[in-house]
Design goal:
- This protein is an alpha+beta fold and 416 residues long.
- It folds into 3 domains: 2-184, GAF domain (Beta-Lactamase); 192-260, Helix Hairpins; 269-413, Histidine kinase-like ATPase, C-terminal domain (Heat Shock Protein 90, 2-Layer Sandwich), CATH 3.30.565.10.
- The protein contains 11 helices and 13 strands.
- A 6-stranded antiparallel sheet has the order 3-2-1-6-5-4, sandwiched between helices.
- Helix 6 packs antiparallel against helix 7, helix 7 crosses helix 11 (381-391) and helix 9 (308-325) runs antiparallel to helix 11.
- The N and C termini lie far apart (86 Å).
- The relative contact order is 0.07.
Amino acid sequence: MLDIVCIWHHFFMTQNSPENLPPLDPNLARDLEAVRRIDAVPSILRLICKNTGMGFAAVARVTDCDWTACAVQDEVNFGLGVGGQLDLQTTLCFESRNARATIVIDDFAQDPVYNGHHTSRIYNLGSYISVPIVLPDGSYFGNLCAIDAHPAQLSNQRTLGMFEVFADLIAIQLATEGRQMAAETALSSERENSSLREQFIAVLGHDLRNPLSAVMATAELLALRKSEPDIVKIGQRLKSTSLRMARLIDDVMDFARGRLGSGIGVSIEQVDDLATALRVVVAEVREANPERVLADDIDLPMPVRCDRTRVQQLVSNLLGNAVTHGSEVLPIRVQARVVDAQIVLSVTNGGNVIQPETLSRVFEPYWRPASSKPGGGLGLGLYICKQIVSAHGGTLDVRSSEEEGTCFVAKLPIGI
């Protein structure tokens, strides 16, 4: 036995020494990792050796030309480790793969088919068993096999059944691992692509500010030429368009900050004039949309703690949404109150009812209803509203009905 083990050890070490091992193919490396992740495989191989008396058991990846050990239980110092490869033609797994059938040999010397087979001569084998590992989709992965220098009783139903059950179990686990690894790879790739996309958006938004500032300055100069009414109109139109572009850039920048960092940043401080600040926002929207009726009911008599600019942005975005999607003939109502230690802000507009399945999506980034008018924005306004409210520790909800219209309600703790 010692001489045979030495022969095996010399052969395996010669064939699989570091200088003789080729770089692993990425697909093979993936398969090795898939087997490694199956916690039950080492126990299966140990159980096979214990129950059969075989000295070496392995899970092998078998292709058209290679035999690669993915997991081994080596109790006789064969010297073939994980990643070790053999020429498939020197193994009986070649025949097992072609036939997709189990090969079991109790004693090579007495076997009528495999007596004198080259595999036995090369590896000095006395007994052998190899069971195909076929994945649920029908693809051939490899073999669950065991070898020993001495004959062994392997062809009984108990041993064959054990090998077949273990091979099926490994196949099922490999399929599961394959799906999980594919999902992890896809998720990692999507996260990387998403991060790159959002970084690009942030850089683009930043770089657009300088040329837009030049356009804004030009619009201001044109609007000052009172002696030329047509030029003044062009300047005012250009100014209005530039302001809209600036708001879009602000939305993009806020979105990028929220995605790339820890959310939209806020600077919470005591604000004594929030009511005045909100009326300024309503006045700006009213001036920009003189054909629309905006009714404000703002009563905030006490100081509150919030980010003044962000709350103005919140109301501005909600009003912009109402102007874009609400009825052109029904009024838009803005209300602000302090109720139960909360700032309660609401913006209500008439128009088509938002269906329940759509209501659940209105705060998603880049999402716009199919009925949206062209040029209505990027679909970030309501997402940013939600982020501003969340940054204040508050809530933002929406409801829509024929009787009330569509109403967005933000509740922010006053923090005093």
